[in-house]
Amino acid sequence: MGKLFSHQQGAPLSNMVTIIGPSGSGKSTIADAFGFIADCLDRGVEEACDMNNRGGFRQLVSQGSDGVIRFELYYRETDDAKPITYELSIALDENNRPYVMDERLSQRVGKTGWPQSFLNLHEGVGYAFEGTDGWQDEDGTVTGQGRKVDVKLADRRKLAVSTYGAMAQYDRIVDFMHFLRSWYLCYFTPDAARQMQFAAPQEHLNTTGSNLNNVAQYMYRDNPKAFAQILKEIQTKLPGIEKIEPKNMENGQMVLKFLEKGFDEPFYSQHMSDGTLKLFAYYLLLHEQSPRQLVFIEEPENGLYHQYLTELAREMRSNVGNGFSKQLFVTTHSPFFVNALAPEDVWVLSKGEDGFSGIKRAADYDMDLEISERQFREGQGRDAWRALADVRDTYGLGRCDYDLLVRQVKELQDAEPFYVALMANMAALLWEALPDINWAGFYVRRGRESDLVLGPFQGKMACIRIPLSKGVCGTAAAEDRIVRVEDVHAFPGHIACDSASQSEIVLPIHQNGEVAAVLDIDSPSLARFSAEDEAGLAKMVRQLEAAIVF
Predict the structure, then answer these.
(1) Are residues 244 and 140 located together in one domain of the fold?
(2) What is the pTM of this model?
């Protein structure tokens, strides 16, 4: 996955790496691979094999392999630093206990050539170089000024980087160990976050989030600007919350106090919803003053209202930036999350016939081309964006059960066929059923030659009148055809009611053979609507036409 020294043709991982795929394809396994290395660092390889229900060494080894667990990490600390490769091999010893068979840290000395080692152990015996330079190649030739030290581990179940990374003279090993220790795997649970902690400010969230109150206390005290920004972001998702602040109890414990509009008395973290606590924790994590270099979050959609996920994905992508200070891995099943990202940020897992999973970037499905939204609007790279839409369709991301929606429209008609009530409920139905949309509603004609007038809808305030032949809605009504637009900014005469809208689909609704209204749906993502969406929505419109009363 990504670029390794042994796999140079791979594209480097971006700062935002989102992994999708069917259940059982290996998303959680990738997350646990990072956790396994972290556990090896802290507890040794034997104990790591049994932790977190892994089931021991034999359960971790791929079936049909040679019985060795191998890792290769290829990373760069800064833009001008030389890439470093870390190789780790774990096997069973003569007593069938897991141990470190091989461990190596290496990097290129010059601009070309094979990497040379500055830490290299086999069966617990080898060498390490002190200082910031000094290497040895495969032939035993030493270069650089650092002193080479022959080493032997007393316990082959411990990582050498853990041992020598604690000694100041091994600068590069110390830096690598700090990189490993900066990893953060998020297994946040709201119940853990509700635990009352003693007042003791802490800079970083722990794995489960049980110190959420303490981290909020730290940021509230030491980084008030970031805390104010978090509150501002939370208020856009939860408009009723006016203020969040830590509160010290008389017994020395601390809780978070939430002040909501319309209530004189505050609510405390123990009584807040799962989604509120989880969203607050994510924003604390994203605004850490000293960010962890690698963060892994599994399925952030669990417990969150789906409409928040698009903004959360954008906030995460913006937060990691393009430098080397932070990299974020996310696994998800949510179309709301995926649709907010570019194809180069999304990786697709799929199982082959041999039972092993492969992974591929969404941007690489049709062509190797890095594109931006600007390039998309200039006509470049549309196939790559369509590839991401194909990936979403293949794995059910964004797919709706339109047959069920048609039946629900029929039930709504049976209850009340009057167009205002029927359109209002159908807009609400679409708003809840369709992922990654920011507006769904109707425009109605009040006469044969009249403009389109705003009808029932869900979403932000919209344009009240739209002339025929103007914009996407006017074009669909005037030409009596479905109009599906991948990029509204490229559509001639587009009327921008909401600047966040990127793609749109409009379907005409008929009465007595003439266009009486249109159904309009917008999305904040480019190329959101597929041919499958068009066909499904057309079925819903035909059902609507069957009994609607204007």
Answers:
(1) no
(2) 0.67
